[in-house]
Amino acid sequence: MQKQSVFHSPLLPFLLIAPQVGIVLVFFYWPALQAVWQSFLLQDAFGLSTTFVAFENYAELLQQPEYFNAIVRTFAFSALIAGSSLSFALLLAVMADKPLRGVGLYRTLLIWPYAVAPAVAGVLWMFMLHPSLGVLARGLRNMGLDWNPLLNGNHAVILVVLAAAWKQISYNFLFFLAGLQSIPKSVLEAAAIDGAGPMRRFWTVTFPLLTPTIFFLIVVNIVYAFFDTFGIIDAMTGGGPAKSTETLVYKVYLDGLLGGNLGSSAAQSVLLMVIVIGLTAIQFRYVERKVTY
Prior knowledge:
Layout: H1 12-38, E1 41-43, E2 50-52, H2 56-61, H3 65-96, H4 103-111, H5 118-128, H6 135-142, H7 153-181, H8 185-193, H9 198-228, H10 230-236, H11 248-258, H12 262-286
Antiparallel strand pairs: 1-2
C-alpha cells in the first residue's frame, strides 16, 4: 500500500520549494541572462560606456585560432581527467569493498581528499612536483627525467591532470563504493557457483550493474573538468607555459578580468555553457542507451 502526502494548504508545497527555486533563479538564471546580454555589448577601456554590437563579439571570437585551440585543449583535459579519476576510483572502490580489517578507516581516508579546496590541491601538487623544490621532482631527476612544468607545456599538462584527477577521485570513490554495496551478493555467489572467476564476475556481473553509477559520474566529471578545474589551473600554472594549460573557463577569466574585454569574455562563457549543455544532451541521448537499470 502506497502512502500519499496530503497538504492541507494549497500554498504549502509552493512555500517548501520556494527557497530552492529562489536560489536557482538568483545564482544561475540571473547571472546566465546577464552573461547573454553582456555578450551583445562592447565596453570601452575605462568601463564608462557600452555599445550594442549584436553578434560581433561571437564573430570575432570564432575567427581566433587560439580560441579553437582552447576548445581542443579543454576536451583533451576533460577526457584525461575524467578517464583517470574514474578508473582509479573504481579500482580503489573494488579493493575497499572487500572484507578487510580496518576497512572503515581506509574508506574514510580515501574520502578525505574531497574536502580539500581546488586551489589547495593545486598548491600541494605544485610543491611536490616543483622542478627545484619538489620531493617527487627530485626523484624524477634522479631517474634521469628532466622534469620542469614551469617551462615544458607537456609536463604542465600532466601536473594539472594529476592534481585535478586526485581531487575528484574521492567523490567518484564514494559513489562507486555505494554502487558496489548495493549489488546483491546472491548474484555474485550464483556467478561463482557457475564457475565464473573474479575477473569474469566483475566484467559480466558487477560492471553492468554499475553502469547507472558510471553514467552519472561521467556527466559529473566532465562538468567538473570544464568548470571546477579553474582553481587548480590558477594556483599551479596560470594557464602557462605558452598557454599549454589555458582551458575555456580560464580563458574567460583571462580575457574578462585581466584583459578587460568583458564582451568577448561573456560570449565565451555563453559558448562554454552551450558546449557543456550539448555534451550532456549527447551523453543522455547515446551513452545512456548502454546503461543497465
